[in-house]
Amino acid sequence: MLTGSYDGFLVAASFLVAALASFTALMMAARAARAVGNAAAWTWRIGGGAAMGLGIWSMHFIGMLAFSLPIPLGYELLLTLASLAVAVGSSVFALWLVSLPTLPHARLVGGALLMGSGIASMHYIGMAALNMQPDIDWHHGWVTLSLLIAFAACWCALFVAFRLRSHSGRTALGLGAACLLGAGIGGVHYAGMAAARFPAGSVCGALGADDLPASALAVLVGAVTVLILGLALGLAWMEQRLETHRLRMRNDDLSNSLDDAQAELTRAALHDPLTHLPNRRLLQKRIEQELLLAQQTARRFALMFVDLDGFKQVNDVYGHHTGDALLVAVSERFRALLGPDDLLARLGGDEFVLVVRVDDVAGITALAQRMQAATGFILVEGHPLDVTASIGIALCPDHASSERQLMACADAAMYQAKAAGRNRHVIYEEGMGGGGGHQLALLAELREAIRLGQWVLHYQPKLDVARQRISGAEALVRWNHPQRGLIPPDQFIPLAERSGLIGELGRWALDEACRQLRVWHRQGHTDWSMSVNLSALQFNAPRLEQDVTHALARHGLPAHQLVLEITESALMQDTAATAALLKALSTLGVGISIDDFGTGYSSLVYLKRLPATELKIDHAFIRDLPGSRNDRLIIASIVALGRAMGMHIVAEGVETPAQRDCLRELGVDYLQGYLLGRPVDAARFEQLHAWPEARIAG
Q: Looking at the structure, do residues 191 and 334 belong to the same domain, yes or no?
């Protein structure tokens, strides 16, 4: 047998070329997977396949140049080119395979077999190009091992290339994988060489004029190697530049999104989310500006308090969605009547306030008449609605010279308009009082309600999106008036706060909610929790912590199953005191929910210091889903903020399946709203929701 020897430097070079070719192919495979359009994808596949095929082929012939026999060697040109074609074809097939959307195991194994067969064929065709006489004697064991190495290397190559598609820009990871693949490709070659036995007296039959001498092969292989090296370095540089560009673009997009979200949150803090009119905060600022201007210039202005007659009936008959649409329609009609210096604000519910500069009282009266005429018959969502407006008017400085006094006078005049038969306007006069007889009568009835036990709690379900079942309820206080029926909280809570009754009302609601939750726990619903709303005054009361502790102890409830809901604006009033109180409540184990999140004007610096466990997205951001891009952006930002701060996210006001599905996609944890259940008394709540089938529909 002829004995051959190897040049160590060329052996090392062959492995280096295989690794560089693998790196080039991996990067191009990732590019092909991310390419837009079939033509672009095939450009990267063919380019990558050519680079990898040339690399495998170069590695083989560098290995052949590293091997020397005591006889001159040459290579048949056609067989040499055929081996190159096989290498390139196998590599293009491999890149096509790994750029597909999926790579199941059966396809991976089949692809590894085909690609491995191609690499092995390239090697043995290249060996046949020597045209040895007599033929090479092959050792079957080594041949089998080379085929197994080819299959294993190709399996690894396809698997790694497919996985690397999701790690764009990870150059170090790509280099490591390329070195592993290069070692596998080199293993195929050198195992195949070990299988070759050259009998004594063998000669190379490829030394003719049409054949390729070893020196010419060395030049060709050198040129291909330089090409591969250039491609590898160029791709690494280009990938790094592209990744830097992608990061910059992603950061710019994120920055713009955050700026948009912050601007939208700021706008929402000063405007009513339904009608987009200024809210109470912006109204107060405008009144203060007008008061200052009136002091400096002796100019008069009017405050007009507008309340819609019949709005509650619209809500009761047609639902809140139609009621909201009616408010939008009315606000647009009112806005069309205003001058450029006038301001129309919505306080909430069906209450609007107009600030308008006064030339004479007749002009104000004429404006009030036009506003009354703007109501009347309105077609909303196919429903013919007939609502009217009661308007109270107060003048500055005629009737008052402070924001609070002006609001009280306009409010009193508005109640006078309602008492006089509604659908009219009244200018404030002395003796009406800041709310007059109506407010005094309501206050007397409210005090009587305490003694007679007319307060009741209704419960609205809170549903866990992940488990698709009820997780508890929110307790909502109602006044069961003997003549007026159930009175919602927005009609008596402000009066209770002004009169000092809110403390007693709040303690009763907290205790009753805990009592009811204990009843449900005894019925087997031990995973249910209870949310209780706290007003701003109740939250700032000195005995709140004591009230919570006593209620939990009295009814034997775990603290973590009680959630206290506080509005965002209430939390921001005195952040140092707020943080201390919340820390004390958190120490008890009570959950803290920031209600109406996004409608206040909170500072994230303060917010991160508060030990809150839940953010509750206001229904104003839910109403226009899934169509509103801005609302989706705001909700996604709130979800990301909550996740970062370890808080659960609750969305209230869910009324349609489309809203529910959109909120699921955005990652909200809990849902509330009429779609999932209206507020009902405890007995009805148990009938509707106390069974396993009470789950999220759809």
A: no
